[in-house]
């Protein structure tokens, strides 16, 4: 995993330089894809087994672990607190992730029963909010 992560970082850096998308935007997309692929296999398997709680626990558990990594990085970082060093792009990305998590948590509490286009209103809301959020992130790069 260390070697794959290193290759991914160098590939993302080269892609960001060649496409002018920006390191933050490419890192966000590549990092999201790389960390979500193991979750995808777990989610598909859990749904096939009708273990829906495992599906949500996997996604929220990974989210919690990622937040815990910020604590570790802040402890190891020399200088000002780590979050005071980030720019508008990273701040908005964190707020977007928090908003998407909050939408799904509200969906767990409210438990809407009427699907729209074969998905819950919470999933539809996440789809719209994440699309708008990625457009904003693209412009913040």
Overview of the molecule:
The protein is built from 5 helices and no strands. The chain is mostly helical and 141 residues long. It has 2 domains: 1-79, no CATH class; 86-141. The longest helix is centred in the N-terminal third of the chain and has 26 residues, at 23-48.
Instruction: Report low-confidence residues grouped into runs of 5 or more.
Output: none
What assembly state would you assign to the polypeptide chains in this entry? single chain
Number of distinct beta strands: 0
Q: Give the terminus-to-terminus CA distance.
A: 28 Å
Keywords:
141 residues, mainly alpha, 5 helices
Walk me through the topology.
Elements: H1 2-19, H2 23-48, H3 52-76, H4 88-110, H5 121-140
Offer a concise description of the structure:
This protein has 141 residues and is mainly α. The protein has helices spanning 2-19, 23-48, 52-76, 88-110, 121-140.
